[in-house]
Amino acid sequence: MPLNPLPATEAPELLAAPVRDAIARLDPALAARIRVAEIDAELADTAAFCEAYGVALDASANCIVVAGRRGDDVTLAACVVLATTRADVNKTVRKLLDARKASFAPVEETVAVTGMEYGGITPLGLPAGWRVLVDARVPLVPEAIIGAGIRGAKILLPGEVLASLPGVEVVEGLASEI
To answer: What GO molecular function annotations does the UniProt record carry, in alphabetical order (predicted)?
Structure first.
């Protein structure tokens, strides 16, 4: 199946509300480089999406939400890694969050605090104050494909644009090859 991307600013119905709002707040030149494509929501998971739409795994980026804990304090952060890699949650992410323990945040909590659907989480439109950690491989991708906040769409944007989004921290060694 082919993807039929449109400028994200022209297809707001394909974006979760927080994502739509975040794109609207971007510099117009930056927002113009972000596109969105409708997909079958049943194929939103990375492997199924890549197979069905003929997308290489190394062009697909995953955004995972991590909870870092130190005592009673919990810090939520997003990690963006290519589908060919795995985030180093137990070492790199844990240290960056100054946490004793780090793990994937519970699905219900992630959905509730982001206003996005599970399987469509994206670094655009996350709650203010969250750290957005992006693996250093992501800015090198000519066109990264990531969630749109809903399962029925994907965002397409140059990796360098994703890395230049407000609040993004590019981290060497955030992920390792699978």
So the answer is: aminoacyl-tRNA deacylase activity
